[in-house]
Amino acid sequence: MQRNTLLTSILAGALLLATAAPAAELGDIAVRSYIGQPLAADIELVQLAPDEVSALQVRLAQQDVYRGANITMNPALGSLHMTVVRRDGRQFLHLTTTRAIDAEYVHLFLELSAAGRQDVRAATVWLQADPNPAPPPLPAPTAAQAALLARAERAVQAAAPAPAQAPAS
């Protein structure tokens, strides 16, 4: 009899787990920035239950989650701003930072909360080098180069003809 009770309990627990609504998951990531620039990316939110769509709240997980995963949080994530947006009938998490990301990737641990449930999801955003980087700034001229340029400018001015005087009337 105890064996049947145990088996019934296990089956009931499995049935409850199987019928539980799936938690929101992170889908494809579209990155719109490059290494050395502030982050701009969209992460698709998939498997959202109907009750989660309007109530979904997302925030960056606490530092202890990063420590528990033995991952250092990128300092630029201190300026992370997230908004849930709807586009083409799908939900996206739009991510931006005001600080540049100077790494090839950023690990994100995101806390998703809705309908009384809270889950942490992990994502890695991969960045590439800018294919069209801005040209590097010209170096400042040295003192010797500046003196040489000044002499050249004076020589050009001295060699230029004097402006013609208007005839007196």
UniProtKB/TrEMBL annotation:
Domain named FimV N-terminal is located at 25-128
Query: So which residues are the signal peptide here?
Result: 1-23
Q: Which Pfam families match?
A: FimV_N
* Source species, domain of life: Bacteria
InterPro entries given for it?
FimV_N
Q: Provide the alphabetized UniProt keywords.
A: Signal
Protein name according to UniProt = Fimbrial protein FimV
Q: Which organism is it from?
A: Duganella vulcania
